[in-house]
C-alpha cells in the first residue's frame, strides 16, 4: 500500500483553454464561384476545444469524463498527459501520467509478446522484469495464444486490451484511459475493473473517457460531464452519468427544447471549481516538486 495520504491531490487543471486554428471551406460573405473559389486560400477559423476547464483529482479517485463527440474529452486527457499545449491555464501532476488510447501505436509486424517486452522496457523495466510480466499481461488481456501472433492480425478490441494490460503491468500512479475499455467483452471488463480497483487501493488515480454512461457508473467514483469544451457537471458518477444519459436521450429523440432545458439546469447547478496553488515552503517540499507535463504552461 502507498504511504501517501488518501486525499492528496494528484492532478490539477487550472482554467485550461485549448484553441486550435484550422482552415474552413465554408463560404464567407465575399465567396468566389468557379475555378477562382477552388484556387482561393481557405479562410482560417478558431476551434475552442476547451474553454476554461478547472478540476482537481485526488489519489484513490476514478474520474469518468463523459460527453458527446467534440465535447473536449480526448483533448482534456491529452492535455493532462502533456501531449497537448494549453493555449492558457496550466496542468500539474504528481507524477508522469500514462495515457492509454485506442490509437496508441504498437508495431504491427511484431508479435504481441514482443510488443509486451518492448513496452515494458520503454517503461523502465529490466529485461528480466519484462519477461516476468508477460504471463500477467496475457492473463489480463485475455487473448490466449494470439499473444504470439503478429499484431497486424489482431482485431481493434484485442489490440486495445493488450495495450491496457501492458500499461497496468507498469503500475502507473496516474492512468488516463481514452475509450480503450469499450472494446472488451464482459470478462475483460470485470478483470480490468478488478485491476483498476487494486491500483486505486494503492493510492493511484484513473481518468476514464467513455461515451457510455453505464461504463462511467460502473467503473468510476466521480464523473465530469463536458459539453462544447465546458464543464457541465462535476460530481458523483452515478448521478452525473444519469443526468447526462437523460439529456442524450432527449437529443436522440429530437426533443431539442427539453434537452436544452436539462443542459441549462445542469449548468446552473454547477459549482465553480477554484484552484489555489501554494508554493513549496520547506526543504522537503522543494525536494519533491510537482511534475509539470510536457508542453503544459505555467
Blueprint of the fold:
Elements lengths: L8 E16 L9 H6 L3 E16 L3 E5 L6 H9 L6 E6 L4 E4 L10 H11 L4 H15 L14 H14 L4 E5 L7 H16 L3 E5 L3 H7 L2 E6 L2 E7 H16 L3 H14 L13 H5 L11
Parallel strand pairs: 3-7, 3-8, 5-6, 6-7
Antiparallel strand pairs: 1-2, 1-4, 8-9
Helix pairs in contact: 3-4, 3-5, 4-5, 5-6, 7-8, 8-9
Structure, described:
The structure is a single chain. The protein is of the alpha/beta class and 298 residues long. Helix content is 38%, strand content 23%. The chain has ten helices and nine strands. It has helices at residues 34-39, 73-81, 112-122, 127-141, 156-169, 186-201, 213-219, 237-252, 256-269, 283-287, and strands spanning 9-24, 43-58, 62-66, 88-93, 98-101, 174-178, 205-209, 222-227, 230-236. Strands 5-6-7-3-8-9 form a six-stranded mixed beta sheet, sandwiched between helices. A three-stranded antiparallel beta sheet has the order 2-1-4. Strand 6 (174-178), helix 6 and strand 7 form a beta-alpha-beta unit. Helix 7 (213-219) runs antiparallel to helix 8 (237-252) and helix 8 (237-252) packs antiparallel against helix 9. It is globular and about 55 Å long.
Features:
3-stranded antiparallel β-sheet; Rossmann fold; disordered N terminus; single chain; 38% helix; 6-stranded mixed β-sheet; 298 residues; disordered C terminus; alpha/beta; 23% strand
Quickly describe the structure:
The chain has 298 residues and is of the alpha/beta class.
Q: Spans of 5+ residues with little confidence (pLDDT < 50)?
A: 1-5, 282-289, 294-298
**Which term fits the overall shape?**
globular
How far is the N terminus from the C terminus?
32 Å
- By CATH reckoning, the class of the largest domain would read Alpha Beta
The domain tally reads: 2
Amino acid at each position: 500500500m502507498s504511504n501517501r495520504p488518501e486525499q492528496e491531490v494528484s492532478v490539477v487543471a487550472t482554467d485550461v483553454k485549448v484553441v486550435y486554428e484550422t482552415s474552413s471551406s465554408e463560404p464567407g460573405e465575399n465567396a468566389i464561384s468557379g475555378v477562382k473559389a477552388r484556387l482561393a486560400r481557405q479562410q482560417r477559423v478558431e476551434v475552442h476545444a476547451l474553454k476554461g476547464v478547472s478540476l482537481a483529482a485526488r489519489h484513490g479517485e476514478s474520474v469518468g469524463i463523459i460527453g458527446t463527440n467534440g465535447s473536449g474529452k480526448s483533448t482534456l486527457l491529452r492535455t493532462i498527459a502533456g501531449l497537448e499545449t494549453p493555449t492558457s491555464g496550466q496542468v500539474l501532476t504528481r507524477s508522469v501520467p500514462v495515457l492509454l488510447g485506442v490509437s496508441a501505436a504498437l508495431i504491427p509486424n511484431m508479435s504481441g509478446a514482443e510488443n509486451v517486452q518492448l513496452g515494458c522496457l520503454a517503461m523502465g523495466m529490466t529485461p528480466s522484469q519484462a519477461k516476468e510480466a508477460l504471463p500477467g499481461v496475457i492473463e489480463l488481456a485475455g487473448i490466449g495464444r494470439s499473444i504470439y501472433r503478429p499484431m497486424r492480425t489482431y482485431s481493434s478490441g484485442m489490440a486495445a486490451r493488450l495495450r491496457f494490460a501492458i500499461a497496468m503491468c507498469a503500475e502507473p500512479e496516474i492512468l488516463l484511459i481514452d475509450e480503450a475499455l469499450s472494446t472488451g467483452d464482459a470478462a475483460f471488463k470485470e478483470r480490468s475493473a478488478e485491476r483498476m480497483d487494486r491500483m486505486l487501493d494503492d493510492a493511484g488515480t484513473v481518468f476514464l473517457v467513455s461515451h457510455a454512461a453505464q461504463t462511467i457508473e460502473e467503473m468510476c467514483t466521480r464523473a465530469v460531464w463536458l459539453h462544447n469544451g465546458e464543464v457541465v457537471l462535476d460530481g458523483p458518477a452515478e448521478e452525473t452519468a444519469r443526468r447526462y444519459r437523460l439529456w442524450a436521450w432527449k437529443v436522440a429523440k429530437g426533443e431539442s427544447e427539453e434537452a436544452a432545458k436539462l443542459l441549462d439546469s445542469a449548468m446552473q447547478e454547477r459549482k465553480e471549481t477554484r484552484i489555489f496553488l501554494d508554493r513549496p515552503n520547506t526543504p522537503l517540499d522543494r525536494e519533491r516538486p510537482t511534475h509539470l507535463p510536457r508542453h503544459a504552461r505555467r
